[in-house]
């Protein structure tokens, strides 16, 4: 993966989750456009994992981003934030984008938990971190046909040293930037998990 000299993966990312507006004064409203851009950028991390086994994970995230973006294009005035997008779509008796956001949040939660575990346990290999994160997030929602596909991806992760090396040569900077990015992702996932659990987000 090509970066400027001394750069990291985050230099090339279209959008970081730390740049996604979150309005605490308006019930933690999350800006739709920036959130979708950051979610698309996140899939580049799966490229850094370097295995075709992660293609289904990446495609799942991108497919759900598309569902939400389609709703945003269909009704832009009602879709400035993810929460307003969900509320207004459900009033139409449809739930394509709302369901997409639910699954996108689950995918982001899985990624965040895997990376958090790996960051906090520096002797743990990625395969263990990703497998445990899968068990506590996506696995409970997947059918018996899907589980083996995702389990294969967990086993296909590279050694941790190789993965972090792909994120940039300056490992101190990689770790600092990944931590900032991850904290912002975790914050927005928490907000969305709480919102999607509400009655107003059910269909």
Can you describe what's shown?
By secondary structure, the protein is mainly alpha-helical. It has one domain (26-201): Glycolipid transfer protein, GLTP. 64% of the residues lie in helices and 2% in strands. The protein has a two-stranded antiparallel ribbon with strand order 1-2. A hairpin with a 5-residue loop joins strand 1 (22-23) and strand 2. Helix 4 (55-74) crosses helix 6 and helix 6 runs antiparallel to helix 10 (171-196). It is globular, with a radius of gyration of 17 Å. The N and C termini lie far apart (42 Å).
Question: How do you describe this structure in short?
Answer:
By secondary structure, the chain is mostly helical. The protein is built from ten helices and two strands, in the order H-E-E-H-H-H-H-H-H-H-H-H.
Query: Considering DSSP H and I runs of 4 or more, what fraction of the residues is helical?
Result: 55-70%
- Summarize the helix and strand pattern as letters: HEEHHHHHHHHH
CATH class designation: Mainly Alpha
CATH topology: Glycolipid transfer protein, GLTP
Decide which structural class fits the backbone.
mainly alpha
User: Overall mean pLDDT score?
Assistant: 93
Strand order of the largest sheet: 1-2
Q: Approximately what portion of the residues adopt beta-strand conformation?
A: under 5%
Beginning-to-end CA distance, first to last residue: 42 Å
Number of domains: 1
Q: Any descriptors?
A:
single chain, 203 residues, mainly alpha, Glycolipid transfer protein, GLTP, two-stranded antiparallel ribbon, 10 helices, 64% helix
